[in-house]
Design goal:
heterodimer; A: two-stranded antiparallel ribbon; 18 helices; B: 483 residues; mainly alpha; globular
């Protein structure tokens, strides 16, 4: 509850703070401070300290899982803001509004991690999406950014419509918006579930898959990620996507088990997984631009996160949190570095290790983490996903498929390492923007990744206490 | 504690080496580090420190059931010793060489050593997996930065091959974790896992493919000659002397005791694959003109023989493998050092472009001759003991397979002696017109290797004694199944 209130409040504060604050550089610090308070507020919430005690039960329920994810999301956003202040300053003259929108997105995320009612799910998705449509187009003079924004808006609005229809159908079948319906219709049923509910659920899942950019609903992702300003892409591809997954997971955790008699969820999900892994990985191989490669890689990583939704057990629950953090940290770092490059192609990175050893070394760690090499957080992320499926007792084939794609992913991640370290060239970087603060933040992120890779209990103890 | 030191010394000194800008300092530092490691393991083998030092155990990932456990057996001690010796030899032999970016080179080399130490010592599945990959990553960076033109592709192929293998092993590990009675990753618990025959067979292959890629065994070997040829020789020495032993070692420690039934039922197939590898690689080696490729194929052949001997499940076979793992490491290191000397001094590795070196470089010729004889496994060289035992093991298993495998001895004599003859005798060719002899450091390194080869050829008993407990342990598990 704290995070929800605070993030909404900070959003409004930043909206009006340009009246008082004239120094353009200070908005970033204000936003960072705001995020810090939200982070502290959320951690306090985890320990039972709340600003207000208001009975929100039938709508939202704050459990450890949601709260821990909030912490992860806010922490990642903080890191994201710290790494991209300069970048955000450049993306247009409406700097405070940019931060405002980010706070509103966080507001949506906190609803998504705790919803107990389908209307809240809808509300969360909308609060999350509408600021993103604007953010995508925040580089107003850039045609690509406008195109991406419009594309995202049209597709997103369509998927929201479909989601609403799904919710309406479920309401028709069960007579309630509650996530866990207590009554079931008795007429027109299949294996005890009403046809309306079955149709509604499937439609709702499709809309969720759209938000999480899972194939076959991923088509918007590469273009939008490519067209949006780099900091927005970084935010969308990591924190927002992870939040969509948490919402997806919460929905499936409750509804899959009691409808599995009527719907073969395992089959649906396994098709989605294989398709996502296939499309994400294979297409990423052929990209020449690092930004597009990362866009496809984020689809591929979504395929791995789908494993948690496929298996829906304790391991999956822990793993999804861990994956969200590991993936977000590494990807935010990569995007932040990329925004300091003039040329976004692989060739543009040639010889970076010589010119900017710190950037190259930290990026190498991020890439190793994304490929799942031990001693980085990415390893345990992948480990948990594989272990969750193995724990279901069957479906080993799915794990082997995943492993093969993980090996394919090596190709495009290591291609960047090869460019940075083994090829010679003169990369053009925005030297004046690579401040010592930026470098130190990158090093801190890299150290965090390694620490999490060596001692995953640092994060997971929070979950268990 | 010593077990932990064996990993920590190279790891920490390696990290420190990254920050050294001066080549001189970095190489002195690494030589010192490798000496220190060598000292540790010698202290342990000669029982100068108490036996409790040989293992180490500390909680690591309690909720996954994984502890940071290191444990020693005779075989482990031998391989750790090999690792320490080879690193010392490599640093000694290349002491005078100026590397580009020396800090990074020595740092990665030492990290790789730490990774391999961990692989040999680990007695916990997840720790083993960690080190298995940690040895691979520095190898990737090393081979991609120092070597010939096509090194990036070659190394990439090497990396992807082994990475797929190790991920399959990871799946195996996770499944095993679920099957153990106490849900842990400990080697001991793996041995008590409750497995049906089909499960055991499936898991066996998940593990075995990972290890077979590393060895490399016949259908999975294609990465190896390319990678050895393209990477810098000093790195190739480590790869072929120590790193490939990881595959054989892992079979002995992580497959035979855990999946004895599957190992016995698949032994026929694997022995045949081993013999195919042996003959196929030998035949290719006969036709090679490139010195490094020749040694690479000869190495595949030897590994094939060792793999076959492991699965023969006989006492001599097993003893032979253990001894040969050590001996092969030493002999092949000697061969690579010669290749390195020849390449840096004469600028070519083509056997056809070299000739008449014996007059110009008598010391080099003598030393290489001893290595070559070791490669053929002539009596009085250490390899003879190993190969003799392995062949007798395979003969015990099946006379026909043994007879076929024996052809390789002839083939190995052909390609090795052919190489020696073409390089050292005959007319001097343009490339060797103004040749000079081997440099001092490489000479010392080679002399140490020669002494080891001859000593163990005369008196292999200490080595056999060292690994005796491992041989007995592994075989008692297998015999239990056979009965």
């Amino acid at each position: 509850m704290n995070a929800l209130i605070l993030s909404a409040a900070w959003g409004i504060i930043l909206m009006f703070c340009s009246i008082l604050v004239k120094n353009k550089k200070s908005f970033g610090y204000i936003a960072a401070f705001g995020l810090l308070t939200i982070l502290i507020g959320n951690i306090a919430d985890t320990y039972g300290m709340q600003i207000t005690h208001y009975n929100i039960y039938p709508m939202l329920s704050l459990d450890r899982f949601g709260l821990l994810f909030n912490t992860i999301a806010i922490l990642s956003t903080l890191i994201f803001v710290l790494l991209s202040t300069i970048e955000i300053r450049k993306t247009g003259k409406y700097q405070p509004e940019f931060y405002t929108l980010i706070f509103f997105v966080l507001c949506g995320i906190t609803i998504l991690t705790s919803y107990q009612n389908l209307l809240m799910l809808f509300l969360g998705i909308e609060i999350l999406s509408i600021p993103l449509y604007i953010l995508t187009g925040s580089d107003k003079k850039n045609l690509k950014s406008n195109e991406a924004s419009l594309k995202y808006f049209l597709m997103g609005a369509f998927s929201t419509g479909i989601m609403l229809m799904g919710i309406a159908l479920i309401y028709g079948g069960t007579g309630t918006f509650n996530l866990q319906p207590s009554t079931h219709s008795v007429v027109g049923t299949y294996h005890g579930i009403s046809f309306l509910e079955i149709t509604g659920l499937i439609i709702l899942m499709c809309a969720m898959a759209f938000k999480a950019s899972v194939a076959p609903f991923h088509f918007w992702a590469p273009d939008v990620y490519d067209g949006a300003p780099t900091p927005v892409t970084s935010f969308m591809a990591t924190i927002v996507k992870a939040a969509a997954f948490i919402a997806f997971f919460k929905l499936c955790e409750v509804r899959v088990a009691d409808t599995s008699a009527a719907i073969n969820w395992k089959m649906i999900f396994s098709i989605m997984i294989v398709a996502t892994l296939f499309i994400g990985n294979i297409t990423a191989i052929f990209q020449q631009s690092v930004k597009r490669m990362l866009a496809y890689s984020s689809i591929a990583q979504a395929g791995f996160m789908m494993y948690a939704i496929f298996s829906l057990n304790d391991v999956a629950k822990e793993g999804l949190l861990y994956y969200a953090l590991a993936y977000s940290l590494a990807t935010i770092g990569l995007f932040a570095t990329m925004s300091k490059m003039k040329d976004y192609t692989f060739e543009g990175y040639n010889g970076l290790a010589k010119k900017q050893p710190t950037l190259a070394a930290t990026n190498a760690i991020f890439l190793l983490s994304l490929s799942g090499i031990p001693l980085t957080a990415g390893f345990f992320a992948k480990y948990y996903m594989l272990a969750s499926v193995i724990k279901t007792g069957s479906n080993t084939w799915l794990v082997i498929v995943g492993v093969c794609f993980a090996a394919i992913a090596i190709y495009y991640y290591f291609r960047l390492i090869q460019s940075m370290y083994f090829k010679t060239g003169n990369p053009e970087t925005l030297d004046e923007e690579i401040t010592p603060f930026f470098k130190n933040s990158l090093i801190a992120v890299a150290v965090l990744i390694i620490l999490l890779g060596a001692f995953p209990q640092l994060l997971l103890n929070w979950f268990y206490f | 504690m010593i077990a932990l030191l064996l990993i920590l010394i190279p790891f920490l000194t390696g990290l420190a080496a990254f920050f050294m800008r001066e080549g001189k300092m970095a190489r002195n530092w690494s030589l010192f580090s490798s000496l220190l490691t060598l000292l540790c393991i010698i202290l342990l083998i000669t029982n100068s420190v108490s036996a409790s030092n040989a293992s180490f155990d500390i909680a690591w990932l309690p909720f996954l059931g994984s502890r940071f456990t290191l444990a020693m057996t005779g075989m482990v001690k031998m391989l750790v010793l090999l690792n320490a010796i080879i690193y010392f030899i490599v640093f000694l032999a290349t002491f005078k060489r100026a590397f580009i970016q020396p800090g990074r080179y020595f740092g990665l080399m030492l990290l790789m050593q730490a990774g391999m130490m961990g692989v040999f010592l680990a007695a916990d599945g997840l720790v083993f997996y960690f080190f298995w990959e940690l040895a691979l990553v520095p190898a990737y960076f090393l081979c991609s930065q120092w070597g010939n033109e096509k090194r990036i592709q070659a190394t990439f192929k090497f990396f992807v091959y082994t990475f797929i293998g190790s991920l399959l092993m990871l799946i195996g590990m996770i499944i095993m974790h679920g099957k153990t009675p106490d849900h842990s990753y400990a080697l001991q618990s793996f041995m008590h896992a409750n497995l049906s025959l089909t499960e055991e067979n499936f898991l066996f292959w998940l593990f075995f493919i990972a290890f077979a890629i590393k060895m490399p065994l016949f259908p999975f070997h294609t990465w190896q000659p390319f990678a050895y040829e393209q990477s810098d020789t000093s790195i190739t020495i480590v790869l072929s002397s120590v790193m490939v032993k990881m595959g054989l070692f892992a079979v002995l420690r992580w497959i035979l005791p855990i999946f004895p039934h599957a190992a016995v039922s698949n032994s026929h197939l694997i022995i045949i694959l081993g013999v195919i590898s042996l003959l196929y690689a030998s035949v290719i080696a006969v036709r090679q003109n490139d010195l490094k490729r020749l040694i690479a194929y000869s190495s595949i052949a030897h590994i094939g023989l060792m793999c076959a001997a492991i699965f023969s499940g006989t006492v001599p076979g097993m003893q032979g493998v253990m001894v040969q793992m050590f001996n092969h490491g030493i002999i092949v290191a000697g061969l690579w050092i010669t290749a390195e000397v020849i390449e840096t001094q004469y600028g070519t590795r083509k056997i056809s472009e070299l000739g008449g070196l014996a007059q110009k470089a008598p010391v080099l010729a003598t030393l290489l001759m001893i290595m070559a004889l070791g490669n053929i496994a002539l009596p009085l060289t250490s390899a003879f003991v190993g190969e003799f035992l392995m062949f007798s093991g395979i003969f015990q298993y099946s006379i026909i397979i043994g007879a076929v495998a024996l052809i390789s001895i002839i083939l190995s004599a052909i390609y090795t002696l052919n190489m020696v003859q073409n390089i050292f005798y005959g007319n001097t060719l343009p490339a060797t017109q103004d040749a000079t002899d081997i440099n001092r450091n490489a000479k010392y390194a080679m002399i140490i290797l020669t002494v080891l080869i001859l000593f163990l050829g005369f008196y292999p008993q200490p080595l056999l004694q060292l690994v005796n407990d491992s041989v007995q342990g592994i075989l008692s598990g297998l015999n239990f199944v056979l009965k």
